[in-house]
Write a structure and sequence with these properties.
three-stranded antiparallel sheet, mainly beta, S-adenosyl-L-methionine-dependent methyltransferases, 2 domains
């Protein structure tokens, strides 16, 4: 599925239990509800075969203890990890499938004489290897590569506009944020950085490109200017995520990736007081430049249905965009 569609599904959870009341409180004579609603934390995207220990939270028994059970969409066998009188906190250790795709885990809490509470959460398994979850990006196994000595990150390289560019987005773990707060996506689509972080995020011998570097990247095919008219297709790759096309087809945008830039539409994010809102998946690709526009940092972006590469600026601390590095 498209990454945007996956996020819509992944944000949907199934819960029973809306309110808490004691037996007979509603006057119906039916069973009362437990206090609160059960939930658990798990990233939206995970790596193949990754193991998690999930701990239920948010629900309690007003008159005693709880029992907990779990099951998954790939193994529907109910695993009762704790009875009402048993010990433990209801935690469950699970290993996700090796196959990419979207799966569901369900947790349940129960107590005698109460309605139970359940919570289901979807997640997607990703493959970060070459031609794994991301295909059609344009980098090849025999491409020139850079191995970042800081954390072992692998970057495919291409020469365009007289410069050597990284073809995939920077995912240096010493700065920035994981896409949708899921570290498993770092190698798949890169991390998102503030301008302040981006200025020093590239490895030694590499730098954040200036706007002039971006101009040189597309100059051969479209010329220079504040707006690179008609150039979007030259830096877009016909990329797929888990087999589904990311750049939705638009007849006016002809994807050629002539500049070998291999842009992926993961959007951008806004980070305010530690809460990150991810915006524009499957629609935007935004890349920091080293240039400034007053108090803001300058970035270049493309939109799925537009043929141009646009220029804009964002807050240096709260606006988060992708980073490509250029060799010194």
């Amino acid at each position: 599925m498209k990454l945007k569609s996956a996020l819509i599904i992944l944000s949907a959870v199934t819960m029973t239990v809306i309110s808490s009341c004691h037996k007979g409180d509603d006057g119906s004579g039916g069973l009362p509800y437990l206090d609160g609603s059960i939930s658990f934390d798990m990233p939206l995207f995970v790596s193949q075969g990754q193991q998690f220990t999930l701990t239920p939270k948010g629900v309690s028994n007003p008159t005693g203890d709880l029992g907990y059970y779990w099951f998954s969409s790939w193994d529907s066998t109910k695993d009762t990890v704790k009875t009402e009188t048993g010990s433990g906190d209801g935690s469950w250790t699970v290993t996700v499938p090796e196959s990419t795709g979207t799966y569901t885990i369900t947790a349940g809490a129960y107590a005698e004489d109460y309605y139970g509470s359940t919570y289901a959460k979807d997640f997607t398994v990703v493959d970060a290897s070459l031609n794994g979850s991301i295909t059609g990006a344009g980098y090849q196994a025999d491409s020139a590569k850079l191995v970042d000595p800081r954390d072992g990150g692998i970057y495919y390289l291409a020469t365009s506009g007289g410069n050597v560019w990284m073809q995939n987005n920077l995912y240096y773990s010493g700065a920035g944020f994981s896409y949708e707060n899921s570290p498993a996506m770092d190698r798949v689509v890169g991390r998102l950085y503030s301008w302040n972080e981006a200025m020093t995020a590239c490895p030694e011998g590499w730098h954040l490109p200036s706007d002039a570097d971006f101009a040189a990247l597309v100059e051969a095919s479209v010329g220079r200017g504040d707006i690179f008219a008609g150039a979007a297709g030259s830096i877009m790759s016909d990329v797929y995520f888990n087999g589904i096309k990311m750049w939705t087809f638009w007849p006016d945008v002809k994807i050629t990736n002539k500049a070998k830039f291999s842009a992926i539409p993961i959007g951008y994010a806004i980070n305010q007081e530690g809460i990150r809102k991810f915006v524009g998946t499957n629609e935007y690709a935004a890349f920091w430049t080293s240039d400034e526009n007053g108090e803001n940092g300058l970035y270049r972006y493309i939109f799925v249905s537009k043929t141009d590469i646009f220029c804009s600026s964002g807050d240096k601390g709260s606006f988060l965009a992708s980073v490509r590095c250029v060799k010194d």
